[in-house]
Each structure stands twice: as structure tokens, then as C-alpha cells.
Amino acid sequence: MSMRNFTIVAALAALSQPVFGQEQASERTVAALPEALADTGEMAPPPVPQSSATEIEDIAPEQLVFGIGRPATEEEIAAIDIDAMPDGRGLPEGSGTYAEGEELYTDFCSACHGEELEGISELGAPGLIGGRGSLASDSPVRTVESYWPYSSTLFDYVYRAMPMDTPGSLTADQVYAISAYILGRAGITSDAPDTVLDAQSMAAIQMPNADGFVSDPRDGNANQ
Predict the structure, then answer these.
(1) For the Cytochrome c domain, which residue ranges apply (predicted)?
(2) Which residues of 148-177 are buried (b: 16+ CB within 10 A; e: fewer)?
(3) d(C-alpha 146, C-alpha 78), whole Å
(4) CA atoms within a 13 Å half-sphere pointing along the CA-CB vector of 64
(5) Is 113 within the bounds of a domain?
(6) Is 111 within a domain?
(7) How many domains are there within the chain?
(8) CATH number for the domain including 108?
(9) pTM of this structure
(10) What's the half-sphere exposure (Cβ side, CA atoms, 13 Å) at 84?
């Protein structure tokens, strides 16, 4: 018998032998099929996961002492307690003009959001103005002008998170000025160079999409 024929015979003989351990393998199981809807026969949606918070009793903070760190001082808390609310609460003292904001926008904002506030998609920076009336269309454009319901949101976000490379570095006066420029360019407030924004005037601004949201009826209860 030639070597080639011997190799073929040996291979066929090997294939005909049982695989060691195969008989001892446990029986395979499969997941149960999801239930079907009676009306349509389509798969029923899975049950809604339940929060484990429903099984936890009230937590006593005094028992959660780990022996590290220290209580924050009033000064440390004040440094990050900068929430600006729609009714003006939390807006700090200070003011800024449209003209000041135009210069500040060029220095701190235009590199990401564009010279004309149009946004730069390659950087992930959205446009800030335009899109008014587009939200119900097939091509909604969400900007400060078209989407945000409160002017305080603009102040709060810029004050807290901008510029991207040095968040929180702008003063309250600078943020008022930048807000005056953005809102002026959007036609929400005047674009006159001497237009001033401060806590009182900012809280009085009516944004174009102020009525485009509904109140959340939930009260934060874990069972909801």
C-alpha cells in the first residue's frame, strides 16, 4: 500500500472512532422562548426591571462613617453651589454687555462653536442659534434658541462647564456678557452693543421654546 493510500485509510479510521468524553458530556439546554402576545403572536416585551431600592429601608447617614475624609467647609460648598434656577435664584451678582460678550465669545467660544455660532460638527460642538420652529419637523435643529426653555440654563451651563479646556474659569460678569451676545444673536434679546444682562433681566427673558416642555409628575419615589 502506498503512503498516500495508507494516510487516507488512517484518517477514515480515526473519524469512525468515538470522541473520548463525548458520552460523558452533560445534556445541553436552551433558554425558554419568550411568551407570545395572544392577539398578534409577536414576542411579548420582557418584564420591566425593578429597582433594588424598593427592598432597602431608610438609610441612616450616621451609620455610613468610613473613617476617611472630612466634612466640606462652607467655603468649599459655596464654590460649587452655583445652580441657576429659571426664576433667578442662584444667579450671582454681576452684569455684562452684548459688546463685551462679542469679544469674549471670539476669545473663548468661537474655536469650537464657530465664528457665526453655527457649531463645528467635527469637534462635536453644537450650533448655538437658529433652528427656531424646526423641532416638530423631520429635521429638528436643537440650539439654545430653538430648544432650551430657560435662559438660566445657558448661564448655568457656561458658568459651570465652559470653556471646555478650562471649565469654571469664567467670571460671572464674563458669563453674563457671553449670554447677552448669544441671546442677542438669536434675536431673543437686543443685539445693541450696550444691552446689559444681569440676574434680574436674565430671569425675565422668555425663551421661544418655554412652552415646549411638560412638568415631570414624578416626585422621586423609588416605587414609581
Answers:
(1) 96-186
(2) bebbbbbbbebbeebeeeeeeebebbbbbb
(3) 32
(4) 4
(5) yes
(6) yes
(7) 1
(8) 1.10.760.10
(9) 0.67
(10) 23
In the chain, the amino acid numbered 186 is A
Q: Is residue 67 part of a domain?
A: no
Per-residue pLDDT tens digits of the chain, which is 224 residues long: 555 554 554 555 555 555 554 555 667 777 777 777 777 777 777 777 777 766 777 777 777 778 888 889 999 998 888 899 999 999 999 999 999 999 999 999 999 999 999 999 999 999 999 999 999 999 999 999 999 999 999 999 999 999 999 999 999 999 999 999 999 999 999 999 999 999 999 999 999 999 999 888 887 776 65
At position 177, the amino acid (one-letter code) is A
20 domain-assigned: no
How many CA atoms does the CB half-sphere of 3 hold within 13 Å? 0
Note whether 187 and 180 are within 8 A (CB). Answer: no
